[in-house]
TrEMBL record:
<dbReference type="GO" id="GO:0016020">
    <property type="term" value="C:membrane"/>
</dbReference>
<keyword id="KW-0132">Cell division</keyword>
<feature type="transmembrane region" description="Helical">
    <location>
        <begin position="224"/>
        <end position="249"/>
    </location>
</feature>
<keyword id="KW-0812">Transmembrane</keyword>
<feature type="transmembrane region" description="Helical">
    <location>
        <begin position="169"/>
        <end position="191"/>
    </location>
</feature>
<keyword id="KW-1133">Transmembrane helix</keyword>
<dbReference type="GO" id="GO:0051301">
    <property type="term" value="P:cell division"/>
</dbReference>
<feature type="transmembrane region" description="Helical">
    <location>
        <begin position="21"/>
        <end position="47"/>
    </location>
</feature>
<dbReference type="GO" id="GO:0032153">
    <property type="term" value="C:cell division site"/>
</dbReference>
<feature type="transmembrane region" description="Helical">
    <location>
        <begin position="269"/>
        <end position="292"/>
    </location>
</feature>
<keyword id="KW-0131">Cell cycle</keyword>
<keyword id="KW-0472">Membrane</keyword>
<protein>
    <submittedName>
        <fullName>Cell division transport system permease protein</fullName>
    </submittedName>
</protein>
<dbReference type="InterPro" id="IPR004513">
    <property type="entry name" value="FtsX"/>
</dbReference>
C-alpha cells in the first residue's frame, strides 16, 4: 500500500438525528426562554442595586425643617441647628439650604416661574452623616426639638418603603423565573417524547441488539444538552446585547426627563461582573435542566414501552 493512500472510515451516524425540525424548534424555544430569564434576572439585579444605593444615600442624610414663627428669628435658629448638628458624633457636615434651593424643591409640585415670596416656606438644614451606625440620632433629635418650630426627619419611613419595594420586585422576579423554568421543562418533555416517538424504530433496534435503557437515555441526554447549550448561549448573548442597547438608548435617544426617571429605577443599565456571571449561570442552569429533563423523560418512556 502506497504512503499516499490513506484509509478513510465513515463517521458513525448519531442515534439521535443531529438536524431535525423538532430539534431546531426546541433550540429556538430554549433561546427565547433563556433570553427572557436573563432579562428578568438582569432587571431584578439592576432594581436591587438601585434600591440599595437609594437606601444607603437616604440613610446617610437627615433633614431638619424649621418653620417660620412669629417672634422668632429664623436665621438664628438655622445657625443654632447647624451648630448643634455638627457637635453630634457621627455627623460629617450640616448645610442650610438657600431660599432659592427650597423653592426649587417645590417646582415639581407647584410648577416653575411662580412667585413664592408671599408663602412662608420652611427652611431646611441638610445633615450628612459620616457613619450612620455611630451617629447619636436620639441626642440630635432631642436637641433639635428644643428649637422652636424645628423637627428632625430621619427618612426611616422612606427607607422601609424602598426596601419593601425592592423586596417585592425581587420576589416577583424569582416567581417569573420559576414560571419560565417550568414552561421550559414542559416544552423539553413534549419535545423529548416527540423525538422518541419519531425514532421508535431506532429504539426498538437498539433494544433488540441489547442496548440498555441507560445507554439510550445517555444518547438523548447528550443531544439535548448540546441543544440546550446552543439555545442558552444564543439567548444569553441576546440578553447582553439588549442591556447594552438599552443603556445606550437611555443616554442618547430617550428624552432627558424619561431617562432620569428610568435611571432612578434601573441605574445606568450596567450589569457589571455580577450580572454577567449571573447570565452565564442562567445559561448553564437551562442547559443542565434540558439534559436532565430529557434523560428522565426518555427513561420513563422506555420503561413504559418495555
Amino acid at each position: 500500500m502506497s504512503e499516499g493512500l490513506k484509509l478513510r472510515f465513515p463517521r458513525p451516524n448519531p442515534i439521535v438525528p443531529a438536524q431535525s425540525v423538532a430539534g431546531r424548534t426546541l433550540m429556538l424555544l430554549i433561546g427565547i426562554m433563556t433570553f427572557l430569564s436573563c432579562v428578568t434576572f438582569g432587571g431584578v439585579l439592576l432594581v436591587q442595586k438601585s434600591a440599595m444605593g437609594w437606601s444607603a444615600d437616604v440613610g446617610r442624610e437627615l433633614t431638619i425643617q424649621i418653620r417660620p414663627l412669629d417672634g422668632e428669628v429664623i436665621e438664628s435658629n438655622l445657625r443654632l441647628a447647624v451648630s448643634l448638628s455638627e457637635a453630634v458624633p457621627g455627623v460629617a457636615s450640616a448645610r442650610v439650604l438657600t431660599i432659592e434651593e427650597s423653592e426649587a424643591l417645590l417646582e415639581p409640585w407647584l410648577g416653575a416661574g411662580l412667585d413664592l415670596s408671599d408663602l412662608t416656606i420652611p427652611r431646611l438644614v441638610i445633615v450628612q452623616l459620616s457613619d450612620p451606625n455611630a451617629a447619636d440620632i436620639v441626642r440630635l433629635e432631642n436637641e433639635i426639638a428644643a428649637i422652636p418650630g424645628a423637627t428632625l426627619e430621619t427618612h426611616a419611613a422612606w427607607r422601609v418603603q424602598l426596601n419593601t419595594m425592592a423586596g417585592t420586585i425581587v420576589v416577583s422576579g424569582i416567581l417569573v423565573l420559576a414560571l419560565i423554568l417550568v414552561a421550559t421543562t414542559l416544552a423539553i418533555v413534549f419535545a423529548t417524547r416527540g423525538t422518541m416517538s419519531t425514532n421508535r424504530e431506532i429504539v426498538d433496534v437498539l433494544h433488540f441488539i441489547g442496548a440498555s435503557n441507560r445507554f439510550i437515555a445517555g444518547e438523548f441526554q447528550g443531544r439535548f444538552l448540546l441543544l440546550g447549550l446552543k439555545g442558552g448561549l444564543a439567548g444569553g448573548i441576546a440578553a447582553i446585547v439588549f442591556f447594552i442597547i438599552a443603556g445606550t438608548a437611555m443616554s442618547t435617544v430617550v428624552p432627558e426627563t424619561s431617562s432620569a426617571q428610568l435611571g432612578v429605577l434601573f441605574g445606568q443599565f450596567a450589569l457589571g461582573i455580577s450580572g454577567l456571571l449571573g447570565i452565564v449561570g442562567v445559561v448553564l442552569v437551562i442547559a443542565g435542566l434540558t439534559a436532565v429533563t430529557s434523560r428522565l423523560t426518555v427513561r420513563r418512556f422506555l420503561t413504559q414501552i418495555s
